[in-house]
Every structure is written in structure tokens, then in C-alpha cells.
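FORM 7B: Structural annotation worksheet

SECTION A. Query
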Amino acid sequence: MKKLIILTAIIIAALQSHAQKINLADGVRKNDLPVIYLPDSLSVHFISPEPIQYVDISSNSIAGDLPVKNVLRIKYRTDSAKRVFPHDAVVTIVGEKFMAQYHVIYSAEPQGGAVQTDIEINPADTRPLDFPGISLSQPELRKYAFGILNKKPEKHLAHSKAYGIKANLNHAYTLGDYIFLDLSFENSTNLSYSIEGIRFKINDKKVNKATTVQSLEIRPDFTLLTVPAFKRHYRNVFVFKKFTFPGNKVLQAEMSEQQLSGRVITLGITYKDVLEADTITLP
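SECTION B. Predicted structure
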């Protein structure tokens, strides 16, 4: 038994020596992290440039939540757990393209409001990440969508008209694994249009009344603008992850109105329109 203990100690010492040689512990030390002071009576908000995917708080004495997608709020618990666990902690925030860590330290009651309660997550405090399935962040999608919206429509790839409303597919673009659809609606009536929603479905081009209609709804990964109503003109950019559908089907954009028996406008987009989409030129 004594020989086994000695052998185990030798193996552990050898592993520790090997770990030092290959620098396994050469990560970021807690004392090197940006310091955030957290008082008993206040909450601190971390503002992220993109939606937060994951949060880890190393101490149970601190509670955290996401009131909105890109804001993390932390505060000390008021129960007995705070007295059991240490007051300081490491807070890890992971976005779509970055990871940031902060050393949160207990602060006494602030005098004159000296503690900063909102923290902008700066690029200098982050490390880049590459998650599978996420090729563009939300800020990047917004930037490219705004670039499309600022262009004058050169052509209408598809159009339809009903109830005095004309729907147009102004342009289709691709970038990486994403498809950008630039849609506009023109209201020639004197009644404003209150938008209940815009849905996208893949349906058969020709529907036989004797057959069952199979419809597949797809949802945008990103929608540039949130517009509740429009009087004359409405234009928006919808971004989808790359999708395909056969030539005997059509992608239908359906805009419905917030009223009983409201006006419904349907625009059919063929797969040819998607295949011939222009490529967005990167800066």
C-alpha cells in the first residue's frame, strides 16, 4: 500500500511538471481580468453588441438574468447564500462571436454613486469565437440589411396586387449561408394598413382542390425593421438561412392585416429568383 501511495505521488508530480512545460495554465488569470465593482444595493448591467448566448457566474452569491437578449443584469442575492459564498466572482459572457470575462468584486455602499452600473462590452475585453451554425452575427446582418435598404430598387423580380396593395420583391441577395429578400408594399387606398404579421411558406405552385395542400412555414433568422402600420409605402429586408425547394413549389410571402376579415396580400417567389440572387460584395 505504501508503494502504491509513493507511485501515485510520483505520477502526479510528473503530470504537474509536464503541464508546466506545455503551458496548460497559461490562460487568463482572474487578477488580470477587467474589474467590476458590485455593491449590495445596486444591479450592474453588461451591454453586449450582439445577443448573449451563454452566461456563467462562478459564485452562487450573485444572481443574474437576461432582461433582453443583449443585456446581462447581475446583483447580490438577499438570502443567506451570500454569507456562505465569497463576495467576488468571475462572470463569463458568451455572444455569437465572442467571449468576455470580468472579475466582479464586492463593493461597500457607494458614496455619491461612484460605482458604474452599466458596462459596455468592448472588443478589447473579448476573445473571438467560432460557433458552428453561426456565420454572421446579428450586428453584421443588420449592417448588410441596412446597406440593401439604402439602395434604390433596380427591378421587381416578382409582384402581386390585391385590395389596392401592391407587393414587390425588389431584389434577392446572398452572403455566405444567408439569403436576403428585399420586399416592398405600396398602398394605393386611403385606408392605412396595420400589419398583423408577415409569414413565409413553401407551397405547391398549382393546388388541386381534390388534394391535400402541404405547406411548410419558414421563419426569417433576422428582420431589419419592426413596422406596425403604413399609410403609403412599406419596405423591409428579411434574412434567411440558406434553404432550397423544388421547382414545382413557390415561396409565398403573406402579409395579413390586424382586423377581422383583414386584407391579406400574397407574393409568390420562385426558386429561380432565389438561385439568381446577387452576391453581396464585402468591404
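SECTION C. Observations
Residues 1-25 have pLDDT under 50 and may be disordered. The longest helix spans residues 2-21.

SECTION D. Sign-off
Analyst initials: ____
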